[in-house]
Structure formats: C-alpha cells, structure tokens
Write a structure and sequence with these properties.
Shape: elongated
Distance between the termini: 14 Å
Oligomer: single chain
Strand order of the largest sheet: 5-4-3-9-10-11
Helix content: 25-40%
CATH architecture of the largest domain: 3-Layer(aba) Sandwich
Radius of gyration: 19 Å
Bound molecules: ligand BV8
Strand content: 15-25%
C-alpha cells in the first residue's frame, strides 16, 4: 500500500519513507492545513510551468513581459492571443491525481484551504472547496481601463496567433483576463487572508512552486514563523526549501496521493 521511499527522477535522491510518515503524522494532528500551490502543481496535467522552455510565445517572449499592463498596452492582440492559447491548453486538460488528493484531504482534516498562484481553476474542478486564487483566474474577464467585470464566452484558440481582444460593452476599453499581472497588486484582502491562514495553520503543504514570485513566495516563511510544519513537495529544491521542515522530492501527482492514502489508513 505504501511504496518504500520514492526515487526522484534525475537526482536519484530517495525521499525517505520516514519523511513522508513524519508529514502524515503532522497532518493527522492538524486542525488547519494550508496547501500552497504553484505552476508545478499543474505540470502533470500537461500545463507548462513558467520556467519550462516553451515553443511558441513562451520561447520568443518572456512571460514576465507578456503578463504585464505594459505588455498588453503595447500589443493587446499578442497578449490576448497568448492567453487564449493558454486557455485552450487548460480546456483540453484536467486536474490530476494530486489535485484530487488535495480535495480528498478535506475528508481527513478539519479544515483545508488551498492558496494557489495558479490561474487554471484545476483545484476547484478537482473538488477542493476553499480556494484562494491569489493571481486570479484565466477564465474570468474584466476590462483594461476600469476593471469592469465582463461575462463573455470567449472561444479558445489552439495557436498563440495574435488576436484582437473584444471591447468592454460599458466603457469601450479592451477586455483582458482577470488575472494579476507582474507589477499589479493582488486582490485587496485576499493576500491578507492568505497570510492570516498561513500564520495560523498547523501544516503548510507547499507544492510545485519555485518560490520566486512575491508576495506569494513569502507565505511559507509566514507559516514557519507561525510554528507550522512546512512540507514541501517539489521535483527539485526551491527558494522555499530553506523554510521547509520536510522536503518530499518528487512529482505532486505521485507524492500527494501517497500522503493521503497513508492518512486514510491511519483514520481507518
Ligand atoms: C506585486 C498570473 C506589489 C498571470 C502571475 C518590479 C516591479 C513591480 C513588481 C516587482 C518588481 N520586481 C519584483 C516585483 C514583484 C513581482 C515579482 O515577484 N517578480 C518576480 C519575477 C521577481 N511580483 C509582482 O509583481 C506581484 N505584485 O508585487 O504587487 C507591487 C506593485 C507594483 C510595484 C511594486 C510592487 C504580482 C505577481 C503575480 C504575477 N502573476 N500569474 C499569468 O499566469 O499569466 S505569476 C506566475 O508566475 C504564476 O502565477 C506563479 O506565481 C509564477 C510562477 O511561479 P511558480 O508557480 O513557482 O512556477 P515556476 O515555474 O517558477 O516553478 C515551478 C516549480 O514547480 C519549480 O520549483 C519546479 O521544480 C516544480 N515542479 C515542476 N514539476 C513539478 C514540480 N513540483 C511538483 N510536481 C511536479 N510535477
């Protein structure tokens, strides 16, 4: 039922069974668990991470230039086309066993809150019920000038060809995805909520993030300072690893189901 260790791809480092069992013991005692996820959480669903070398726009342009107000203002068709392409990728993919394991964790721990940097909506689709989308959602839209929410049905694209964005029916400005771009503030109150939960949680699972993008990257530090057991799940060490009590090296889609299966066995 429980594999002995986990040989991570490439590094050959074994994740010790003891580390997984220490993580499971902490979860078994926890009242509040925060699962903080980044792009690596969706990698096994087939969604490229920001740091993957990419074909198309991802190779030609730096996402940190496209995912900005300046990038959109400079060339709305390029940025709108890029997001439509990404929406198409997400529409053709689905949450994986790791997302489903986090949803199943809600039956085993009194309170689980997912705090995600991802904009793909996969945690909700997998069944998690309490989710803070720090960086918004690619399938929600607003206008560029006034942030008017816009409910439109946008056809997804299968290429990243430039495409003129539709226009806001209220103010005539171009429509953009309702996501947080680099240089933009996170939705007011949402990050403060995430900080409060991180400070109060008993365990923080930090899954698939390089810990490079602020302010989300500070949450594991807040959790550790608040006395939480910080468990990192990543295929390689990251900026977060300094604050992790336990580092489980391997893909989220394999490690999270193992943790949940072990916890279910304890609860049986
Ligand atoms: C802010 C939505 C206050 C859009 C994203 C100069 C001017 C202005 C701001 C800044 C500046 N310099 C720095 C900043 C702050 C900036 C920042 O942090 N920049 C970085 C680049 C240094 N932050 C901001 O701008 C934030 N706002 O600070 O507001 C402010 C305002 C004005 C002026 C000053 C300050 C807003 C940041 C939000 C940006 N939006 N997404 C979109 O998606 O298009 S960020 C985007 O990139 C993602 O959401 C995510 O947050 C980030 C990517 O990071 P990760 O998720 O960690 O993914 P990454 O690819 O890096 O790593 C993947 C990890 O997974 C790896 O570790 C890998 O090993 C692992 N992995 C891979 N496979 C697996 C796996 N793990 C497990 N299993 C696997 N199978």
């Amino acid at each position: 039922m429980f594999d002995v260790g986990y040989r991570a791809g490439g590094t050959g480092k074994l994740t010790d069974v003891e580390d997984i069992e220490t993580a499971v013991d902490a979860l078994a005692k926890a009242q509040l668990v925060v699962a903080a996820s980044g792009a690596g959480m969706s990698k096994e669903s087939g969604i490229p991470t920001f740091r993957d070398a990419q074909s198309g726009l991802w190779a030609r342009y730096n996402p940190e230039e496209l995912a900005t107000r300046q990038g959109f203002a400079q060339n709305p068709a390029r940025v709108w086309g890029w997001y439509n392409y990404r929406r198409g990728l997400i529409a053709r993919r689905a949450p994986h066993a790791g997302h489903l394991a986090l949803a199943a964790l809600e039956e085993l721990v009194p309170q689980v809150v997912v705090v995600t940097q991802n904009i793909d909506g996969f945690h909700r689709e997998a069944g998690s019920s309490t989710i803070l989308e720090l960086h918004g959602n690619i399938n929600r839209f607003k206008c560029f000038d006034q942030d008017h929410p816009v409910g439109i049905d946008v056809p997804v694209a299968d290429t990243d060809a430039e495409l003129e964005p539709p226009i806001c029916p209220r103010c005539g400005s171009p429509i953009r995805p309702d996501v947080v771009w680099f240089g933009e503030m996170l939705p007011s109150g949402l990050f403060q909520q995430a900080e409060t939960l991180s400070r109060a949680c008993d365990v923080m699972l930090v899954i698939g993030t390089s810990g490079m993008v602020q302010p989300a990257a500070g949450l594991p530090f807040v959790a550790e300072a608040g006395g939480a057991t910080v468990v990192e799940v990543n295929t390689e060490p990251s900026q977060v690893s300094h604050y992790a009590s336990i580092f489980l090296q391997g893909p989220a889609g394999e490690i999270l189901p193992q943790i949940v299966a072990r916890l279910e066995a304890l609860r049986a």
